[in-house]
Design goal:
The protein has 502 residues and is mainly α. It is built from 25 helices and two strands. A two-stranded antiparallel ribbon has the order 1-2. The longest helix is centred in the middle third of the chain and has 36 residues, at 271-306.
């Protein structure tokens, strides 16, 4: 309000009196564009309704905006808000990817589980997004950030809690799926909120960086799952010097990977030893469930206690006055051809690489061991997170070059995954070092693009809310991800041809 009073005391006060409310909103929204990317798309847009406003009015308003911008104080709490949100998105992704890193031990511990069971547990996140995307975007649009983020934290904590009840195979299977549904609902809120946190708390010049930090922390959650899971649930049991991989190898390839055949519970004279191993693995899996619940409980306490309230700026009030409603926003997005092109590019890039990496232990099971696949996934995510932060910061420093950055990163990713495909099909001589390099570079380049996609989409879609733009993009990505996960229900398809999707 102080900035508004200062603006009203300036010589251009008469301008605000002589122009209609719609003209004021349009002019002021032009003064304070929310985008940090290529602003040429806004400047080059047809200005049919601006002809009635004199150039001298615009110049006076620009002078006023400069004075207002000088007096706006960026809140220090923005880093607290970003840090708590990043911790939440990290833990939510870690819980979502619980089963990928421990696929083999889990299928040993629960003999009725097969590959498609593990894929379905991850797929619940995509299914929930497709089902509840619109209500959650409306929730963010109406309530702001504080209440939805608290709700997301509570949902993730409940998801971690319900898995701690029993290690009975039937009960645990039910609770694991129920937990995946609850955690998926939390992800539906967190996904669109990523761009909204940056837009609400950060000024121009920092928003792409803030979005990149949030995206990187989400990726680090997956990396954490590849550390915590194998650290708690052993792939090798020290008792009687029996190796799990050796024990799993007792089953033939057809028995292990035929989705429709039942897995034997006895294998000759080793049946008692198998039962002993299953008991040990179930105890370890339950320990993992409890560890994740304790960590998530601490995160919930932190968010409920310390997450700051959404700031109210003069700029925000101007932007909100020119924003569309929910239905208007959706119709606006559907009518824009360039939004379809951009969002589909983001969907095919992000909708496949994330699920593919979460199932990497099954994708490369014939080429590398589970331990090697876990390490590959971990370092891939670490490199991807670092490059994502660098790309986001560079985009903030060199504004106006988002498209060039996206083209470059996506081309690198395409070339790397072509390399992976040629290595896996033995068109090129297979070497593990080349496979590791291609996977790390391909995923890292692809995962550097989400922040750039979100900022460019928010720019093109303005004045549509960032929550709705982010929800729209992630909806399409989850649609692609759902189709990818369902490929594991088709015998031979999910394991043989899923690299083509990348």
């Amino acid at each position: 309000m102080n900035q508004l009073r200062e603006a009203q005391s300036l010589p251009c006060k008469s301008i605000f009196k002589n122009n209609s409310k719609a003209q004021k909103n349009k002019l002021l929204s032009k003064i304070f564009p929310r985008s940090t990317g290529n602003l040429k798309s806004q400047d080059s847009a047809p200005q049919e309704n601006d002809q009635s406003v004199n150039n001298e009015y615009t110049e006076d308003l620009n002078e006023t905006s400069n004075l207002i911008n000088e007096n706006i104080q960026v809140p220090k709490e923005r880093w607290i808000a970003l840090a708590l949100f990043c911790v939440l998105t990290c833990s939510q992704c870690c819980i979502w990817n619980t089963w990928g890193p421990i696929t083999t031990p889990t299928m040993m511990a629960f003999t009725s589980w097969h590959k498609y069971h593990v894929a379905l547990l991850s797929d619940w996140g995509c299914i929930m997004y497709l089902t509840f995307c619109l209500p959650c975007c409306w929730y963010l649009y109406r309530k702001g950030l504080l209440e939805p983020i608290r709700m997301a934290a509570v949902l993730t904590a409940l998801a971690a809690f319900v898995r701690c009840f029993s290690c009975n195979e039937t009960i645990f299977t039910i609770t694991a799926h129920f937990a995946a549904i609850l955690n998926g609902l939390s992800g539906v809120i967190i996904g669109p909120a990523t761009a909204l946190v940056s837009a609400v708390w950060f000024p121009r010049g920092e928003r792409t960086t803030a979005t990149g930090i949030s995206s990187a922390c989400n990726q680090l959650g997956m990396a954490a799952s590849y550390l915590i899971g194998p650290a708690v649930v052993d792939t090798i049991i020290s008792s009687n010097n029996t190796a799990l991989n050796r024990n799993v190898g007792i089953y033939s390839h057809e028995e292990r990977y035929n989705f429709h055949s039942s897995r034997p519970t006895d294998v000759g004279s080793s049946s008692s030893n198998d039962e002993h191993i299953r008991t040990i693995l179930r105890v370890q899996i339950m320990s993992l469930m409890r560890i994740e619940f304790v960590i998530q409980s601490l995160i919930v306490v932190g968010i409920l206690s310390f997450f700051p309230k959404q700031p109210n700026y003069f700029i925000d009030s101007v932007e909100k006055s020119s924003r569309f409603g929910l239905i208007e926003s959706i119709m606006s997005l559907l009518k824009k051809k360039n939004m379809w092109q951009l969002c589909l590019a983001a969907a095919f890039s992000q909708g496949v690489t994330g699920p593919w990496l979460s199932m990497i232990t099954m994708t490369f099971d014939s080429m590398v061991t589970q331990e090697e696949a876990d390490k590959l996934a971990f370092w891939t995510i670490i490199f991807g997170s670092v490059i994502s932060l660098v790309a986001s910061r560079v985009a903030d420093i060199f504004q106006g070059h988002l498209k060039i950055g996206l083209y470059t990163l996506l081309m690198i990713s395409v070339v790397m995954f072509l390399w992976v495909l040629l290595l896996e099909n033995r068109v090129l001589i297979f070497r593990k070092e080349e496979l590791y390099a291609a996977v790390i570079l391909g995923i890292s380049a692809s995962w550097s693009t989400p922040a750039l996609f979100l900022e460019l989409a928010s720019e093109i879609a303005f004045p549509v809310s960032e929550a709705i733009v982010g929800g729209y993009m992630i909806f399409l990505a989850n649609l692609i991800g759902t189709l990818f996960y369902f490929s594991y229900f088709i015998p031979g398809i999910g394991t043989e041809y899923n690299d083509i999707g990348c």
